[in-house]
Amino acid sequence: MLKGAILSLLLFAQPTIDFTHTLNVSVVEELKNTNNTYKSQVAKKVEFRTNFISKAEDHDEKVKPQRKNQEDREEWMLFEISAYTNGKESTGKTPGDKGYALTASGVRTKEGRTVSADTKVLPIGTIIYIDNIGERRVEDTGSAIKGRKLDLFIEDLKEARKFGRKKGVKVKIIKMGSGELN
């Protein structure tokens, strides 16, 4: 009988919030005596869990949305990535030329740190994480780097050529830059 009442509550509730509730229920056995009188006794205790749904307005507490952790909020974007060097084949400059090895942000290129990007997509100073490559900072721009394209600085020409061009590389923004290096 008690089980039926609980089941009725569960079936006819208006769903909005899901939570788990544990109940201890004493199962009562009715024993019929010969003179049509009934005697009750507790046969056993049963514990069961129910997931039931209740309306938010039935509670005094306001339901607050759960914040996702930082990792969940970060979204991967797909980029095409190539590599460049300080040399004439990439920049048109040779050692001794004005601006040789200097980025658009004014710092010297450094392998393992410098990346060139379209500043309309990733402003100077933006810290990104490139899947299977690592963390880099947008310090430079390039005439062919438009939209979702990146150019990694690699010191050695042979290594830069070996890197080639990779499409569909996952990139996530760690910290958006301000347009200049601090």
UniProtKB/TrEMBL annotation:
Organism annotation: Paenibacillus spiritus
Entry GO MF terms: hydrolase activity, hydrolyzing O-glycosyl compounds
Any one biological process term the GO annotation gives: peptidoglycan turnover
Xref: Pfam families: 3D
Residues covered by the 3D domain: 113-174
SUPFAM superfamilies: Barwin-like endoglucanases
Protein name: 3D domain-containing protein
Key words, A-Z: Signal
CDD domains the record matches: 3D_containing_proteins
GO cellular component, one term: outer membrane
